[in-house]
Each structure stands twice: as C-alpha cells, then as structure tokens.
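SEQUENCE-TO-STRUCTURE ENTRY
===========================
Question of interest: how does this chain fold, as expressed in backbone structure tokens?
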Amino acid sequence: MTLHEYFVHLLQSALTGDRPLPKPDTLTWQEIYAMAKKHSLTTMVLQAANVFSHELNDGLYEKWLDRSTKLVAKFVNQEFEESRLSDLLENAKIPHMLLKGAWVRNLFPSPQLREMSDIDILIPASMATKAHDLVVSDGYVFKEECTTSHNTEYVKKPYLILELHTAMLPLESRQSDYYEDIWSKTTKISDYRHELSVEQQFIYCIAHMHKHYIYCGIGIRSVLDIFVLLKAYCNQFDIETIRNEFKKLGMEQFAEAVCHIALAWFGKKEYKLTASEQEIAEDILNSETYGNRSSRTEHILKNEMNQGKSMLSAKRSYLRRRMFPDYNYMKGVFPRMMKSPILLPVGWVARWGKGLFTKKDSMKKELIELREAEKKMERR
C-alpha cells in the first residue's frame, strides 16, 4: 500500500469509526504526519492513528497531539466567533451568509475534525464599507495586502482570520456571472442572515473547488467535503437540476470527476476511475490544501491548452495576463487607487514598479516555474 493509499484509508476509518489496518512497513508515521499537515487534516488522521499511538516514537505522538489540541481550541474559538459575528451583522442590519467550511464541517462525524483556516462570510457589495467599519471597530485588523476582487481579510490574534466576501467567486472568474443574483437564491433564517439550499451549497463547494484547481490546485480536504455532502444529501438532490446548473457554470465534467473521486476514495463500494479522473486524483494527492505555487503555473497552462491553444500560445496568454491583469484583478491589488477602469494603465505601472522594488526574487521564481511547468507538461 502506497503512502497515498494508506492516507486515504486512515481518513476513511476516521469517517466510519472502523479500526484501520496496520501501517505498512514501507511507510513511516513521520511521512503520514507531514501529509496530514500539508492537507490540513491533522486532527482527522490522528483520530484514526490513535490506535497505533505506541508506534509514534521520538516525541511524534506528543507533537501531533499538541497540534491537534491547538486546532480544536481554534475550532471552539471559530464556532463562538461565527455566532457572535452573525449577531453583530444582524444588529447592524447587514445581510450576510456563512460560507464553505463553516457550514460543511457540521456534516463530519465531529465538526472539529474538519479544520478551517478562516471564517468566510458573504455580504452585499453595497454594504462593504459599513461592514469594514463594523469589524475594525470590533478589534479586527484589516490586511490590505490580502484584498482581492471579491473579498477583504481581517485578523484578530491569536486564532481568528475573517474574510468578508462581496461575491461568491473572483470577479475575474468566468463563472462569476452565475452568482450575480446570489441573494435571490438564498433563504432568510433571520431578518438579515441568509442561507443557501443544500443543492446550491453543493454546487458552490464544487465551484469553489474548481477555482482553486484551475489556478493552483486543491487538496484532499475538498474531496472529503464533497463526500460528506453526497452522503448526507444525495437522496434529496434533484440530480438533473444540479447537472444543468453545472452546465451553466461550464464545469459539468469536473463536477462529475470530483464526485467519482470522492466515492472511489471514501465510499464503501469500489469505483474504478477513468484515466482523466485518475489524473485529477493524482493532482489532488500531490497538492496541498489550497494547492501551491509550483502547481499553479502548470494548472493555468493546462487550462489554456484545454481550450485548444498550443504551448506557445498558452505561455503568451499566461504572460500577457500576468503583465496586464484585468480591472477586476487590479481592484484587488490596489483597492483605493482603482476607482475607475480608466485608471487601469496607471495601476499596471504601479504594479510593475512594486514588483521591481519589492518582489524581484518572486518574479524570477515565477519565470523559472513557467519553464519547469512547460518541461513537465512536455514530458507527459
């Protein structure tokens, strides 16, 4: 059994409560721990590995348990804060909706098994300034460098990271138009708190997954999210309606692939993946929670070539977008400067200057990654 196979087996055991098989002699617990950290599954893997705690030597068990304990403490803080922030927004008469992990973690055997890096809350774009002033006055610190076209980030030490989203997907994303009227698709659960239907939650989980997969990769935790959703609601889903929604988003094949991967890894029945599904599965296993920089360039080139472009055309398109990003992207980089599309050339010059003076090494690394991605794809 390979590292990937045994790692998935441990996760399956944590989901079912069954005793896992003994670790193969060819693997080490240190390798398994490193993979659990990489995919943000420290607590869940420990849940299964606990029966072999006597094998975790040289302080590894204590280190693993300490990390898991801190993550559970973070979970408790996040859960309390989600409720408190919702009350804060409610009292300020700001419509809002909890997104992603805050909702799906309750479908796991224990919510604390599903690690969550930040609290994601959707608000109307028209309420962004009011919400910003509210959370800053509440003690959150605004991280301007983490601002994007569709969300702003705030931190409150020691554990809390808050992302206020004004759109479900980045505005530069081809699928962003699908969510233009998102508030009409929600149900009110209080005067100002909203919630999506389970079908729309499922669609958004895969749409969010697709965004990360295309741009930099995704990890195993995202597949677990899909599996627990399928397990909890599959019999309630209107499959034909969901399939039509994925067609509108242009990701029907991707959605089918990740569902098949989820069932193949964590379902009780054996499921044989197609060659293309197996390729996606390998990408996920070799990635991290939200991908990594080294895989980002390869994913972008692959996406361009899937649209019929040659490698040369894909590289040119990649470099053109990096040199001349669109207005929605630049609004995220310079939110105070980019008040109008007419200022786009000024933003490009400012970004080039910022890169030359503060990110020269990063720019060189990106060009190296582009060459390495090209070579890797040519070898396939």
